[in-house]
Amino acid sequence: MKRTLLALALLSLSLTANAQLAKQKNITHEEISNSINELAQKGDEASKKQLAIEAKAFAESNNEKYMDIASKIYSFLGNKSEADKISKTILKKYPKGAVARSNAFDEKLLKATDLTGAKAEQVYKTLVKDFPEKNFETNDIYAKAVAAIATIYLDENNATKAISLLDQIKTNPSYAKSVFPIVMKLSEQGKEQVALPILEEVYKQSQNKDSESARYIFSLAPIYTKVLLENGNTQKVIDITDDLSKKSPYFLTQKSAALPASQAYAKVGRDLDAFLTLNNLLESNGISEDVVSYIKPLYVKINNQKGDFKGYLDNTESKFKKSS
């Protein structure tokens, strides 16, 4: 896979022939990103030479973001000494800037390994005092930090405190991204019930199609519907399933989404919908024993104790193989 500077978290812009990006007016971050990444992906000598030219121009600008881009370009090109030199200049010139903030959060909180939840909270308060959110354009690092503290509290078996902290970052645009690893960890530990308030918030935010939650909900919804089903909230499982399956035809091709949906349909007497949900799953993913154990009683019931279930499975497997 070709390396890209996007993976190095470059803030980007677009290349105009023979014009240095740093000197172009009204150029957007997205345009810079596309241009720098395009050059990085090419990997030929001409592109590397152009990247070095761009890095020099960015380094000479009176702009912290541009200087940071320069440092990352030089690092990408293997010029560590120049990259380090620029990084030191940034910290000296902008002691309260974005790079200094990132370094401080990493060193004192995000990459620290010996913090208790209470101590982490104290560190966070000091960091926020040193680097107020209002001073920066992008503030996802604050949500990430709070999520990290919440994780520590969860490890200390203090779920109440963890959920309370996460409640404080609901308005941060990076909420879904920040809580995603927490929900997945709780699911792996069999503690999905603890994640219910988080899942409810992500689903609520996902109704705004432009939100980050609208992207993450398709991965988190199967956990959400599983918890709701366990709690007896069958109709809500159906409502969420109907909503998300309309937004994405692939939602119910996930076993983790299809199984609770099918069970919910069956609980309210919608046996055909329950059957068709699992039938679609089998045709999309092939035969699996656990799904067969759920669909068999539905098949028998719909066919009034008649029908050829083995023949049905053979035909379904055939459809799957033809579509693969």
What does this structure look like?
- The chain is mainly alpha-helical.
- The protein contains 16 helices and no strands.
- The radius of gyration is 26 Å and the shape is globular.
- The relative contact order is 0.04.
Mean pLDDT, rounded to whole units? 92
**Rg calculated over all Cα atoms:** 26 Å
Share of β-strand residues: under 5%
SS-based structural class?
mainly alpha
Number of strands: 0
What is the distance, rounded to the nearest whole angstrom, between the alpha carbons of the first and last residues? 25 Å
Shape: globular
**Considering DSSP H and I runs of 4 or more, what fraction of the residues is helical?**
55-70%
Q: How many H/I helical runs?
A: 16
Task: Offer a few descriptive terms.
mainly alpha, 16 helices, 0% strand, globular
Q: What topology emerges from the helices and strands here?
A:
Elements: H1 29-42, H2 45-59, H3 64-76, H4 80-93, H5 98-110, H6 117-130, H7 140-155, H8 159-167, H9 175-188, H10 196-206, H11 213-230, H12 234-247, H13 255-267, H14 271-285, H15 289-302, H16 309-323
Helix pairs in contact: 1-2, 2-3, 3-4, 5-6, 5-7, 6-7, 7-8, 7-9, 9-11, 10-11, 11-12, 11-13, 12-13, 13-14, 14-15, 14-16
Quick gist of this model?
The chain has 324 residues and is an all-alpha fold. It contains 16 helices and no strands.
